[in-house]
Design a protein that fits this description.
Elements: H1 3-15, E1 34-35, H2 46-62, H3 77-89, E2 96-98, H4 102-113, E3 122-126, H5 131-143, H6 148-151, E4 152-155, H7 165-170, E5 176-182, H8 194-203, E6 207-211, H9 223-226, E7 230-233, E8 248-251, H10 296-312, H11 314-334, E9 342-343, E10 356-359, H12 363-372, E11 375-376, E12 378-380, E13 384-387, H13 396-412
Parallel strand pairs: 1-11, 3-4, 3-5, 5-6, 6-7
Antiparallel strand pairs: 2-8, 7-8, 9-10, 10-13, 12-13
Bound molecules: pyridoxal-5'-phosphate (PLP).
Pyridoxal-5'-phosphate binds next to helix 4 and helix 5.
Pfam families: KYNU_C
Function: Catalyzes the cleavage of L-kynurenine (L-Kyn) and L-3-hydroxykynurenine (L-3OHKyn) into anthranilic acid (AA) and 3-hydroxyanthranilic acid (3-OHAA), respectively.
GO molecular function: kynureninase activity
Length: 426
């Protein structure tokens, strides 16, 4: 059915300089599984596993002294890893901190930067946003005594999947105080033009920040050069930090004089934190935006994951990721058995993140059939299936195998064996 494409896949894998990193991950290939859900939860790598074991060992042997002793002293780990993470977002090392969660960090950014006035009270976002982001925005509008229906403006999508940057820019009117958007839309995988949006916002005197959950670790950024005001992200998707791993935040250095809206003792200047003074002396950089004691067991995996990313380089990761998603889309277009699927991800390379969304009326049952055959996709209500071929651990032959299997399922109508329940998280 697809001999030529298979040869192409083998050739690409043969030339792939990232190929050796696959061996560092627990890919389940021994049980013939192909994991394509790294945009929900990245796989465990051996360096991260080792880092967690070392953290437990430090606790065992140093107890309280682990804060200042051992290979990775806990007291400065959030700052140290923030500096390492800065290259993933294109920031200066003082502009990034490892802390909190996506949701908490957005709350911190809004508590700090959303200062509504009667004339300028609107938070501008978009209707396809991840719900937790919208809930956070609603909270701050309410906390300031404004109304959601007049102060939260959501740009709508013309096709239900993607957004037009021009529509977003047209909504940047005088009453907008702050803009919060996702870099990559979590369903369709559309990558927005962050530079264009930032320039347009600043021309209109509006602050702008981005949720990088679906781009960090997959797409390079230049937040400092673009002048983005703030950003926040999780680390359990393309950064492979593990379930609930500690998140990150970027605050442009032009805002480092600002007192964080939410204050906690881990945001203190480290030299005076243990003076336990009743008044807050903030740290100099992005570290000021931390709250309480860092969740070190959920930070430790990042020691391994960030080391791998630094070595592999985000530019190479992006290059391979684009080649993988392009190959994926090409196969969907080529296999006649897959003609009933619709590709909802933009086809232009510059407008695409690291995953592909297919739609099919039988998506729920098809996902069950795929899982039964060892292909791990990501079901999205009601008709969507996301596939993320991840540069660090997936191969071109994985993509070929996954789509050949999908084609067989469609040819044999194998999904009809499964129940048509929609409540599944496949
Ligand atoms: C994954 C994701 C989140 C999750 O937020 P948590 O606080 O980590 O649960 C938020 N926003 C976007 C865009 C995401 O993709």
């Amino acid at each position: 059915m697809s001999g030529l494409q298979f040869e192409f896949a083998e050739k690409m894998d043969g030339h792939d300089i990232l190929h050796p990193y696959r061996e560092e991950f627990y890919t389940h290939s021994a049980t013939n599984q192909i994991y394509l859900d790294g945009n929900s939860l990245g796989l465990l790598n051996k360096r991260s596993e080792q880092a967690v074991l070392e953290l437990l060992e430090a606790w065992k042997t140093h107890a309280i002294d682990g804060w200042t002793e051992g290979k990775h002293p806990w007291f400065t780990m959030s700052e140290q890893l923030g500096r390492q993470m800065a290259s993933l977002v294109g920031a200066n090392s003082s502009e990034v901190i490892v802390s909190g969660s996506t949701t908490v960090n957005l709350h911190q950014m809004l508590a700090t930067f959303y200062k509504p006035t009667a004339k300028k009270h609107v938070i501008l976002s978009e209707a396809l946003s991840f719900p937790t982001d919208l809930y956070a925005m609603q909270s701050h509008i309410q906390l300031h005594g404004y109304q959601e229906n007049s102060s939260l403006r959501l740009v709508t999508s013309n096709d239900g999947y993607t957004l037009s940057e021009d529509d977003i820019i047209a909504a940047m009117t005088d009453d907008v105080a702050i803009i919060v958007l996702s870099s990559v839309l979590y369903r369709s995988g559309q990558l927005l033009d962050l530079q264009k949006l930032t320039t347009a916002a600043h021309e209109r005197g509006i602050l702008i920040g981005f949720d990088l959950c679906h781009s960090i670790g997959s797409v390079p950024h230049e937040l400092s050069n673009w002048g983005v005001d703030f950003a926040f992200w999780c680390t359990y998707k393309h950064v492979n930090g593990g379930p609930g791993s500690v998140a990150g935040m970027y605050i442009n250095q032009k805002h480092h004089h600002v007192t964080p809206g939410l204050r906690g003792w881990f945001g203190s200047d480290k030299s005076v934190q243990f003076d336990m003074d009743a008044s807050f002396t903030k740290a100099d950089g992005a570290g000021a935006f931390q709250l309480g004691t860092p969740h070190l067991l959920s930070i430790a995996p990042l020691i391994g994951s960030l080391a791998i990313m630094e070595e592999a380089s985000i530019a190479r990761i992006r290059e391979k990721s684009i080649a993988l998603t392009s190959f994926f889309i090409e196969l969907v277009d080529t296999f006649p058995e897959l003609s009933s699927f619709t590709v909802r991800t933009p086809r232009e390379v510059h407008a695409r993140g690291g995953h592909v969304l297919l739609e099919h009326p039988e998506a729920a049952r098809i996902c069950k059939a795929l899982k039964a055959k060892g292909i791990i996709p990501d079901f999205r209500q009601p008709n969507g299936i996301r596939f993320a071929p991840v540069a660090l651990y997936n191969t071109f032959t994985d993509v070929h195998q996954a789509l050949t299997t999908l084609a067989e399922i469609m040819r044999d109508k194998a999904y009809e064996e499964y129940e048509n329940s929609r409540g599944v998280i496949a």
